[in-house]
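Forgive a beginner's question, but would it be possible to get any protein sequence you like and the tokens describing how it folds?
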Amino acid sequence: MNNREQLLDQLLKDLDAATTGAVRFISSRTSRRSFLGKLGMFLAGMGALPMLPVVREANAQSSDSIPDMGNPDSCDYWRYCAFSGQACSCCGGTVTQCPPGSQTATVAWVGTCHNPGDGRDYLISYNDCCGKSSCGRCGCHRSEGDRPVYYPG
């Protein structure tokens, strides 16, 4: 046996001894039912761990880095795949800001749109703008990927 194999063999023996000692210690102080209950709680908690609030900005992609394919004033713009209403960019606003004299509502609508520029799907938020009547230009009514309305009978 060379030195590396001896080191690995010793590491596995030490790991086996530590595991055996820990299992004997736990079994001498708890019942099987108690151990299984605590193990179940631990596993359920580990399953809920991804739902905790965590800052995910490190992996977030800024909207500036998303390739922009198309004209925001056109209803065929890729971001408007689930949009219904007047486009803010035609009324003095932008894709992300309401026109002057109006303000963003507290409710936003979302849709998943496919960007032909990079071939990826994006969750797009559509904001309602309140406080001003619509300008009457660029009326868009697209509902790509919408499912039919279901009425329970």
